[in-house]
Automatic annotation (TrEMBL):
InterPro entries: SAM-dependent_MTases_sf
One GO CC annotation: cytoplasm
Organism: Thalassiosira oceanica (Marine diatom)
Keywords: Methyltransferase, Transferase
Molecular function terms from GO: methyltransferase activity
GO BP of this protein: methylation
Domain of life: Eukaryota
Name used for this protein in its record: Uncharacterized protein
Length: 459
Protein backbone atom coordinates (compact mmCIF):
# COMPACT_ATOMS: atom_id res chain seq x y z
CA UNK A 1 0.00 0.00 0.00
CA UNK A 2 1.49 3.40 -0.86
CA UNK A 3 2.48 5.27 2.31
CA UNK A 4 0.45 8.30 1.21
CA UNK A 5 -2.82 6.39 1.35
CA UNK A 6 -3.72 6.53 5.04
CA UNK A 7 -6.82 4.50 5.83
CA UNK A 8 -9.68 6.27 7.49
CA UNK A 9 -10.58 3.57 9.98
CA UNK A 10 -10.47 5.36 13.27
CA UNK A 11 -11.38 3.11 16.16
CA UNK A 12 -9.42 1.29 18.86
CA UNK A 13 -7.90 -1.68 17.13
CA UNK A 14 -5.80 -4.77 17.43
CA UNK A 15 -2.85 -5.02 15.07
CA UNK A 16 -0.53 -7.67 13.67
CA UNK A 17 3.08 -6.70 13.03
CA UNK A 18 5.15 -8.73 10.61
CA UNK A 19 8.75 -7.79 11.40
CA UNK A 20 11.55 -7.64 8.89
CA UNK A 21 13.68 -10.79 9.07
CA UNK A 22 17.11 -10.69 10.61
CA UNK A 23 20.11 -11.05 8.33
CA UNK A 24 21.88 -12.68 11.25
CA UNK A 25 20.77 -13.39 14.76
CA UNK A 26 21.14 -10.48 17.21
CA UNK A 27 21.50 -7.88 14.47
CA UNK A 28 18.15 -6.10 14.57
CA UNK A 29 15.52 -8.06 16.53
CA UNK A 30 16.45 -6.47 19.87
CA UNK A 31 15.64 -3.03 18.41
CA UNK A 32 12.23 -3.79 16.89
CA UNK A 33 10.01 -2.69 19.78
CA UNK A 34 12.32 0.19 20.70
CA UNK A 35 12.22 1.55 17.16
CA UNK A 36 8.44 1.18 16.88
CA UNK A 37 7.66 2.77 20.25
CA UNK A 38 10.07 5.65 19.47
CA UNK A 39 8.40 6.22 16.09
CA UNK A 40 4.94 6.04 17.65
CA UNK A 41 5.89 8.49 20.42
CA UNK A 42 7.20 10.96 17.78
CA UNK A 43 4.04 10.67 15.68
CA UNK A 44 1.76 11.10 18.69
CA UNK A 45 3.83 14.01 20.10
CA UNK A 46 3.41 15.79 16.76
CA UNK A 47 -0.34 15.09 16.73
CA UNK A 48 -0.88 16.22 20.31
CA UNK A 49 1.38 19.33 19.97
CA UNK A 50 -0.38 22.40 21.34
CA UNK A 51 -3.26 20.40 22.88
CA UNK A 52 -1.89 20.46 26.43
CA UNK A 53 -1.30 16.68 26.51
CA UNK A 54 1.78 15.89 28.63
CA UNK A 55 4.94 14.32 27.17
CA UNK A 56 4.84 11.60 29.85
CA UNK A 57 1.24 10.67 29.01
CA UNK A 58 2.07 10.45 25.30
CA UNK A 59 5.15 8.33 25.97
CA UNK A 60 3.21 6.08 28.36
CA UNK A 61 0.40 5.55 25.82
CA UNK A 62 2.94 4.50 23.15
CA UNK A 63 4.84 2.31 25.61
CA UNK A 64 1.64 0.58 26.71
CA UNK A 65 1.98 -1.63 23.64
CA UNK A 66 1.80 -5.32 24.44
CA UNK A 67 3.15 -7.80 21.92
CA UNK A 68 2.16 -11.49 21.71
CA UNK A 69 3.80 -14.01 19.40
CA UNK A 70 1.71 -15.59 16.65
CA UNK A 71 4.21 -18.37 16.01
CA UNK A 72 5.50 -21.10 18.27
CA UNK A 73 8.07 -23.36 16.75
CA UNK A 74 7.19 -27.03 16.98
CA UNK A 75 9.30 -28.21 19.96
CA UNK A 76 10.13 -31.40 18.04
CA UNK A 77 12.28 -29.24 15.78
CA UNK A 78 16.01 -29.27 16.29
CA UNK A 79 16.75 -25.55 16.51
CA UNK A 80 19.09 -23.33 18.46
CA UNK A 81 17.70 -20.90 21.04
CA UNK A 82 18.44 -18.04 18.62
CA UNK A 83 16.50 -19.74 15.82
CA UNK A 84 13.55 -20.43 18.11
CA UNK A 85 13.49 -16.81 19.17
CA UNK A 86 13.86 -15.52 15.61
CA UNK A 87 11.02 -17.76 14.46
CA UNK A 88 8.64 -17.17 17.36
CA UNK A 89 8.86 -13.37 17.32
CA UNK A 90 8.55 -12.83 13.55
CA UNK A 91 4.80 -12.11 13.64
CA UNK A 92 3.19 -10.52 16.70
CA UNK A 93 -0.19 -9.24 17.80
CA UNK A 94 -0.13 -5.72 19.17
CA UNK A 95 -2.72 -4.17 21.47
CA UNK A 96 -2.69 -0.94 23.48
CA UNK A 97 -4.17 -0.38 26.91
CA UNK A 98 -6.40 2.60 27.68
CA UNK A 99 -4.20 5.72 27.81
CA UNK A 100 -4.14 8.23 30.67
CA UNK A 101 -5.72 11.69 30.37
CA UNK A 102 -7.52 10.84 27.13
CA UNK A 103 -4.24 10.23 25.26
CA UNK A 104 -4.81 7.22 23.02
CA UNK A 105 -3.14 5.57 20.05
CA UNK A 106 -5.15 5.70 16.80
CA UNK A 107 -4.90 3.68 13.58
CA UNK A 108 -3.50 6.78 11.92
CA UNK A 109 -0.67 6.91 14.51
CA UNK A 110 0.17 3.23 13.94
CA UNK A 111 0.03 3.80 10.17
CA UNK A 112 2.46 6.74 10.35
CA UNK A 113 4.78 5.02 12.85
CA UNK A 114 4.94 1.86 10.71
CA UNK A 115 5.74 3.89 7.58
CA UNK A 116 8.94 5.21 9.20
CA UNK A 117 10.17 1.97 10.85
CA UNK A 118 12.95 0.14 9.07
CA UNK A 119 12.37 -3.08 11.03
CA UNK A 120 8.73 -3.58 10.07
CA UNK A 121 7.64 -5.45 6.96
CA UNK A 122 3.91 -4.78 7.31
CA UNK A 123 1.39 -3.84 9.95
CA UNK A 124 -2.12 -5.26 9.62
CA UNK A 125 -5.43 -4.45 11.26
CA UNK A 126 -6.83 -7.54 12.94
CA UNK A 127 -10.27 -8.65 11.73
CA UNK A 128 -10.70 -12.09 13.26
CA UNK A 129 -9.25 -15.54 13.89
CA UNK A 130 -10.30 -19.19 13.83
CA UNK A 131 -9.03 -22.75 13.72
CA UNK A 132 -11.34 -23.45 10.77
CA UNK A 133 -12.56 -21.23 7.93
CA UNK A 134 -16.06 -21.34 9.44
CA UNK A 135 -14.71 -20.12 12.80
CA UNK A 136 -12.72 -17.41 11.02
CA UNK A 137 -15.78 -16.16 9.18
CA UNK A 138 -17.86 -16.17 12.39
CA UNK A 139 -15.20 -14.19 14.23
CA UNK A 140 -14.50 -11.64 11.46
CA UNK A 141 -17.91 -10.97 9.97
CA UNK A 142 -19.07 -8.54 12.62
CA UNK A 143 -15.77 -6.66 12.92
CA UNK A 144 -16.50 -2.93 12.68
CA UNK A 145 -13.20 -2.45 10.89
CA UNK A 146 -14.18 -5.03 8.27
CA UNK A 147 -17.67 -3.58 7.81
CA UNK A 148 -16.31 -0.06 7.39
CA UNK A 149 -13.63 -1.17 4.93
CA UNK A 150 -16.10 -3.26 2.93
CA UNK A 151 -18.82 -0.64 2.67
CA UNK A 152 -16.80 2.22 1.19
CA UNK A 153 -16.79 0.82 -2.35
CA UNK A 154 -12.99 0.94 -2.71
CA UNK A 155 -11.12 -1.52 -4.93
CA UNK A 156 -9.89 -4.59 -3.06
CA UNK A 157 -8.00 -7.85 -3.22
CA UNK A 158 -7.43 -10.81 -0.94
CA UNK A 159 -4.30 -12.91 -0.66
CA UNK A 160 -3.51 -16.00 1.34
CA UNK A 161 -0.11 -16.39 2.97
CA UNK A 162 1.14 -19.45 4.74
CA UNK A 163 3.74 -18.72 7.35
CA UNK A 164 4.82 -22.00 8.78
CA UNK A 165 4.55 -25.74 8.48
CA UNK A 166 4.42 -28.54 10.98
CA UNK A 167 7.78 -29.74 9.77
CA UNK A 168 9.44 -26.35 9.97
CA UNK A 169 12.93 -27.53 9.16
CA UNK A 170 11.70 -28.24 5.61
CA UNK A 171 10.84 -24.59 5.24
CA UNK A 172 13.95 -22.91 3.86
CA UNK A 173 12.78 -19.58 5.19
CA UNK A 174 12.37 -20.97 8.67
CA UNK A 175 9.38 -18.87 9.57
CA UNK A 176 11.00 -15.60 8.58
CA UNK A 177 8.91 -15.20 5.51
CA UNK A 178 5.59 -16.21 4.10
CA UNK A 179 4.84 -18.42 1.12
CA UNK A 180 1.96 -17.88 -1.24
CA UNK A 181 0.39 -20.67 -3.28
CA UNK A 182 -2.17 -19.57 -5.85
CA UNK A 183 -3.59 -23.11 -5.98
CA UNK A 184 -4.18 -23.18 -2.22
CA UNK A 185 -5.56 -19.63 -2.39
CA UNK A 186 -8.17 -20.71 -4.97
CA UNK A 187 -9.30 -23.50 -2.67
CA UNK A 188 -9.43 -21.35 0.48
CA UNK A 189 -11.15 -18.19 -0.69
CA UNK A 190 -14.59 -19.75 -1.39
CA UNK A 191 -14.58 -20.92 2.22
CA UNK A 192 -14.50 -17.33 3.48
CA UNK A 193 -17.02 -16.13 0.88
CA UNK A 194 -19.51 -14.69 3.46
CA UNK A 195 -16.80 -12.17 4.37
CA UNK A 196 -15.70 -11.43 0.83
CA UNK A 197 -19.19 -10.81 -0.48
CA UNK A 198 -19.50 -7.83 1.86
CA UNK A 199 -17.05 -5.92 -0.34
CA UNK A 200 -18.93 -3.62 -2.68
CA UNK A 201 -15.97 -2.24 -4.67
CA UNK A 202 -14.33 -3.86 -7.71
CA UNK A 203 -11.59 -6.45 -7.33
CA UNK A 204 -8.22 -5.04 -8.40
CA UNK A 205 -5.41 -7.57 -8.28
CA UNK A 206 -2.68 -5.08 -9.16
CA UNK A 207 -3.10 -1.94 -7.06
CA UNK A 208 -6.17 -2.11 -4.85
CA UNK A 209 -6.92 0.32 -2.03
CA UNK A 210 -7.89 -2.48 0.35
CA UNK A 211 -5.58 -5.43 0.88
CA UNK A 212 -7.19 -8.32 2.73
CA UNK A 213 -4.85 -10.99 3.99
CA UNK A 214 -5.64 -14.51 5.02
CA UNK A 215 -2.71 -15.51 7.24
CA UNK A 216 -2.41 -19.24 7.88
CA UNK A 217 -0.16 -21.59 9.79
CA UNK A 218 -0.23 -19.61 13.03
CA UNK A 219 0.24 -21.12 16.45
CA UNK A 220 0.73 -19.05 19.57
CA UNK A 221 1.32 -21.44 22.44
CA UNK A 222 0.26 -24.70 24.10
CA UNK A 223 0.72 -28.24 22.74
CA UNK A 224 1.73 -28.17 19.11
CA UNK A 225 -1.03 -29.43 16.78
CA UNK A 226 -0.38 -32.63 14.90
CA UNK A 227 -2.14 -31.66 11.65
CA UNK A 228 -1.73 -28.51 9.51
CA UNK A 229 -5.51 -27.96 9.62
CA UNK A 230 -5.23 -27.34 13.37
CA UNK A 231 -3.00 -24.32 12.93
CA UNK A 232 -4.76 -21.00 13.42
CA UNK A 233 -5.93 -18.64 10.67
CA UNK A 234 -6.17 -14.86 10.97
CA UNK A 235 -7.93 -12.42 8.67
CA UNK A 236 -6.28 -9.01 8.56
CA UNK A 237 -6.29 -5.80 6.56
CA UNK A 238 -2.99 -4.21 5.48
CA UNK A 239 -2.60 -0.92 7.34
CA UNK A 240 0.90 0.11 6.23
CA UNK A 241 4.26 -1.18 5.13
CA UNK A 242 7.53 -0.34 6.83
CA UNK A 243 9.94 2.40 5.78
CA UNK A 244 11.19 2.28 2.21
CA UNK A 245 14.67 2.67 3.65
CA UNK A 246 16.45 1.28 0.57
CA UNK A 247 15.77 4.56 -1.23
CA UNK A 248 18.67 6.01 0.81
CA UNK A 249 20.91 2.94 0.94
CA UNK A 250 24.61 3.80 0.37
CA UNK A 251 24.40 2.17 -3.10
CA UNK A 252 21.80 4.71 -4.21
CA UNK A 253 23.70 7.75 -2.96
CA UNK A 254 25.92 10.16 -4.84
CA UNK A 255 28.26 10.75 -1.91
CA UNK A 256 30.52 7.72 -1.56
CA UNK A 257 32.61 7.25 1.59
CA UNK A 258 34.41 4.27 3.10
CA UNK A 259 32.20 4.02 6.21
CA UNK A 260 28.61 4.83 5.24
CA UNK A 261 25.94 3.91 7.76
CA UNK A 262 23.34 1.53 6.30
CA UNK A 263 19.81 2.81 5.72
CA UNK A 264 18.27 0.49 8.35
CA UNK A 265 20.58 1.77 11.09
CA UNK A 266 20.05 5.39 10.02
CA UNK A 267 16.28 5.00 10.34
CA UNK A 268 16.72 3.18 13.62
CA UNK A 269 18.75 6.04 15.12
CA UNK A 270 16.13 8.57 13.95
CA UNK A 271 13.26 6.63 15.51
CA UNK A 272 15.05 5.99 18.77
CA UNK A 273 15.95 9.71 18.87
CA UNK A 274 12.29 10.57 18.16
CA UNK A 275 12.95 12.70 15.12
CA UNK A 276 9.85 14.66 14.08
CA UNK A 277 8.25 14.76 17.53
CA UNK A 278 8.14 18.56 17.50
CA UNK A 279 7.64 21.26 14.89
CA UNK A 280 10.75 22.20 12.83
CA UNK A 281 13.19 20.22 14.92
CA UNK A 282 16.91 20.81 14.58
CA UNK A 283 19.27 17.85 14.31
CA UNK A 284 23.05 17.71 14.62
CA UNK A 285 25.34 14.87 13.60
CA UNK A 286 28.78 15.78 14.99
CA UNK A 287 30.55 12.95 13.09
CA UNK A 288 28.38 13.19 9.99
CA UNK A 289 30.48 11.50 7.26
CA UNK A 290 28.24 11.03 4.22
CA UNK A 291 25.30 12.37 6.29
CA UNK A 292 23.26 9.13 6.25
CA UNK A 293 21.67 9.93 9.62
CA UNK A 294 20.64 13.43 8.48
CA UNK A 295 19.27 12.10 5.21
CA UNK A 296 17.12 9.54 7.07
CA UNK A 297 15.88 12.31 9.40
CA UNK A 298 14.90 14.48 6.42
CA UNK A 299 13.15 11.53 4.74
CA UNK A 300 11.15 10.82 7.90
CA UNK A 301 10.35 14.43 8.71
CA UNK A 302 11.12 16.79 5.79
CA UNK A 303 10.66 19.93 7.90
CA UNK A 304 13.66 19.16 10.17
CA UNK A 305 16.74 21.41 9.98
CA UNK A 306 19.91 19.34 9.69
CA UNK A 307 23.53 20.25 10.48
CA UNK A 308 26.59 18.02 10.19
CA UNK A 309 30.17 18.43 11.37
CA UNK A 310 33.03 16.36 9.96
CA UNK A 311 36.78 16.79 9.70
CA UNK A 312 36.57 15.30 6.20
CA UNK A 313 34.16 17.78 4.54
CA UNK A 314 35.79 19.45 1.56
CA UNK A 315 38.70 16.97 1.83
CA UNK A 316 37.77 13.31 1.30
CA UNK A 317 34.00 13.94 1.61
CA UNK A 318 32.33 16.06 -1.05
CA UNK A 319 29.79 18.52 0.33
CA UNK A 320 28.33 18.99 -3.18
CA UNK A 321 27.63 15.25 -3.44
CA UNK A 322 25.88 15.23 -0.05
CA UNK A 323 23.80 18.25 -1.08
CA UNK A 324 22.76 16.45 -4.25
CA UNK A 325 21.75 13.37 -2.21
CA UNK A 326 19.23 15.61 -0.47
CA UNK A 327 18.08 17.84 -3.30
CA UNK A 328 17.58 14.98 -5.79
CA UNK A 329 15.15 13.51 -3.24
CA UNK A 330 13.35 16.85 -2.90
CA UNK A 331 14.77 17.46 0.58
CA UNK A 332 16.34 20.60 2.04
CA UNK A 333 20.15 20.25 2.04
CA UNK A 334 21.96 20.16 5.40
CA UNK A 335 24.47 22.74 6.64
CA UNK A 336 27.86 20.98 6.55
CA UNK A 337 30.64 22.33 8.74
CA UNK A 338 34.20 21.29 8.09
CA UNK A 339 35.94 20.91 11.43
CA UNK A 340 36.73 18.95 14.55
CA UNK A 341 33.75 18.65 16.89
CA UNK A 342 36.15 18.75 19.84
CA UNK A 343 37.11 22.24 18.71
CA UNK A 344 34.70 24.82 20.20
CA UNK A 345 34.79 26.89 16.99
CA UNK A 346 33.09 24.03 15.05
CA UNK A 347 30.37 23.77 17.66
CA UNK A 348 29.91 27.56 17.61
CA UNK A 349 29.47 27.36 13.82
CA UNK A 350 26.89 24.59 14.25
CA UNK A 351 24.95 26.62 16.83
CA UNK A 352 25.03 29.74 14.63
CA UNK A 353 23.72 27.72 11.68
CA UNK A 354 20.85 26.62 13.91
CA UNK A 355 20.38 29.82 15.97
CA UNK A 356 21.12 27.94 19.21
CA UNK A 357 20.98 24.53 20.83
CA UNK A 358 19.70 21.46 18.95
CA UNK A 359 16.63 19.30 19.65
CA UNK A 360 18.42 16.08 18.71
CA UNK A 361 22.03 14.96 18.41
CA UNK A 362 22.49 11.58 16.75
CA UNK A 363 25.64 10.07 15.47
CA UNK A 364 27.71 7.15 14.34
CA UNK A 365 31.14 8.21 15.66
CA UNK A 366 34.48 6.87 14.42
CA UNK A 367 35.15 3.33 15.67
CA UNK A 368 38.89 4.07 15.51
CA UNK A 369 39.30 1.08 13.18
CA UNK A 370 39.45 2.85 9.84
CA UNK A 371 38.93 6.52 10.69
CA UNK A 372 41.31 8.74 12.61
CA UNK A 373 40.18 10.70 15.62
CA UNK A 374 41.83 13.73 17.13
CA UNK A 375 41.01 13.19 20.80
CA UNK A 376 42.00 10.46 23.23
CA UNK A 377 42.07 6.96 21.77
CA UNK A 378 39.93 3.96 22.77
CA UNK A 379 36.57 2.72 21.52
CA UNK A 380 34.33 4.95 23.65
CA UNK A 381 36.61 7.99 23.21
CA UNK A 382 34.64 9.95 20.57
CA UNK A 383 31.48 9.87 22.72
CA UNK A 384 33.46 10.78 25.85
CA UNK A 385 35.07 13.67 23.95
CA UNK A 386 31.67 14.87 22.78
CA UNK A 387 30.20 14.78 26.31
CA UNK A 388 33.19 16.67 27.71
CA UNK A 389 32.73 19.31 25.00
CA UNK A 390 29.00 19.52 25.74
CA UNK A 391 29.73 20.05 29.45
CA UNK A 392 32.23 22.83 28.68
CA UNK A 393 29.72 24.52 26.37
CA UNK A 394 27.03 24.31 29.03
CA UNK A 395 29.33 25.91 31.61
CA UNK A 396 29.87 28.78 29.18
CA UNK A 397 26.11 29.26 28.83
CA UNK A 398 25.87 27.90 25.29
CA UNK A 399 24.40 24.36 25.46
CA UNK A 400 24.65 22.20 22.38
CA UNK A 401 21.47 20.19 23.16
CA UNK A 402 18.18 21.65 24.41
CA UNK A 403 16.76 20.51 27.76
CA UNK A 404 14.57 17.46 27.06
CA UNK A 405 16.46 16.77 23.82
CA UNK A 406 17.88 13.36 22.85
CA UNK A 407 21.43 12.26 22.18
CA UNK A 408 21.64 8.88 20.47
CA UNK A 409 24.92 7.32 19.48
CA UNK A 410 26.51 4.07 18.45
CA UNK A 411 29.32 2.82 20.69
CA UNK A 412 31.53 0.00 19.35
CA UNK A 413 32.57 -2.79 21.72
CA UNK A 414 34.97 -5.69 21.13
CA UNK A 415 35.28 -8.93 23.15
CA UNK A 416 37.17 -8.39 26.38
CA UNK A 417 35.44 -5.06 26.96
CA UNK A 418 32.21 -4.42 28.80
CA UNK A 419 29.97 -1.70 27.42
CA UNK A 420 29.81 -0.02 30.86
CA UNK A 421 33.60 0.55 30.77
CA UNK A 422 33.22 2.36 27.46
CA UNK A 423 30.30 4.58 28.37
CA UNK A 424 30.81 7.98 29.98
CA UNK A 425 31.07 7.69 33.77
CA UNK A 426 28.28 9.22 35.85
CA UNK A 427 30.27 12.40 36.66
CA UNK A 428 30.82 13.02 32.91
CA UNK A 429 27.13 12.42 32.15
CA UNK A 430 26.25 14.90 34.92
CA UNK A 431 28.80 17.41 33.59
CA UNK A 432 27.21 17.14 30.12
CA UNK A 433 23.71 17.39 31.65
CA UNK A 434 22.68 13.99 30.30
CA UNK A 435 20.88 11.00 31.73
CA UNK A 436 21.30 7.55 30.20
CA UNK A 437 17.90 6.20 29.08
CA UNK A 438 18.55 2.91 27.26
CA UNK A 439 21.41 0.91 25.80
CA UNK A 440 21.13 -2.13 23.53
CA UNK A 441 23.62 -4.32 21.72
CA UNK A 442 23.83 -5.00 18.01
CA UNK A 443 26.13 -7.88 17.04
CA UNK A 444 28.08 -6.96 13.92
CA UNK A 445 30.31 -10.06 13.86
CA UNK A 446 32.14 -12.34 16.28
CA UNK A 447 34.73 -9.67 17.08
CA UNK A 448 32.63 -6.49 17.10
CA UNK A 449 29.36 -5.36 18.63
CA UNK A 450 28.02 -1.90 18.53
CA UNK A 451 25.60 -0.58 21.07
CA UNK A 452 22.96 2.05 20.58
CA UNK A 453 22.92 4.30 23.63
CA UNK A 454 20.28 6.97 24.22
CA UNK A 455 20.59 9.90 26.63
CA UNK A 456 18.19 12.69 27.47
CA UNK A 457 19.29 16.26 28.32
CA UNK A 458 18.03 16.90 31.83
CA UNK A 459 19.12 20.50 32.42
C1 LIG B 1 31.76 6.22 11.26
S1 LIG B 1 32.04 7.64 10.32
C2 LIG B 1 30.47 8.32 10.13
C3 LIG B 1 29.71 7.64 9.10
C4 LIG B 1 28.45 8.34 8.74
N1 LIG B 1 27.38 8.04 9.67
C5 LIG B 1 28.04 8.01 7.32
O1 LIG B 1 26.97 7.44 7.12
O2 LIG B 1 28.80 8.28 6.40
C6 LIG B 1 32.79 8.76 11.42
C7 LIG B 1 33.11 10.11 10.82
O3 LIG B 1 33.65 10.94 11.85
C8 LIG B 1 34.59 11.81 11.26
N2 LIG B 1 35.46 12.33 12.36
C9 LIG B 1 36.50 11.70 12.99
N3 LIG B 1 36.97 12.47 13.99
C10 LIG B 1 36.23 13.61 13.98
C11 LIG B 1 36.22 14.78 14.79
N4 LIG B 1 37.08 14.94 15.77
N5 LIG B 1 35.31 15.75 14.51
C12 LIG B 1 34.42 15.60 13.49
N6 LIG B 1 34.39 14.51 12.70
C13 LIG B 1 35.26 13.52 12.94
C14 LIG B 1 35.29 10.97 10.22
O4 LIG B 1 35.82 11.80 9.19
C15 LIG B 1 34.14 10.10 9.70
O5 LIG B 1 33.57 10.64 8.54
Amino acid sequence: MPASRAPTLLERSKYVIYWRGEAKSGYTATFRHWEFVGALTSVMSARYAGTGAGAAEIENAAKAASFTNLFTLNPANPASADQVDMYNTALQVLVFGEGEGGVNVTDEDVFKATSRCSLIHHTYLWLGEGATYADLVRDSINSKVLRKAASNGETWRVRRYEFSFLNDTDNPRFGKDATRSVAKERKSLPKIWPVLELFKGAVDLKDPVIHLNLLEGLHECGPHPSKPEELKKVLALTLACGAKHMTISPRTRICKTTTPLCSISSHLLCNVAMVGSGPSQSILDPFAGSAATLLAAAMISPEVRTVGIDTGFGLDISRADIHRDFTTRGLAAPVLIQGDVLDSASRDDARSANCGAFDVIMTDPPYLIRESFTGEQGMGAPLLGLLKAMGEDFEQGKPLLKRGGSLVSFVPCTPGHHIDELLPKQHLQDFAGLQLQTKREQKINSSLSRWIVAFRAVR
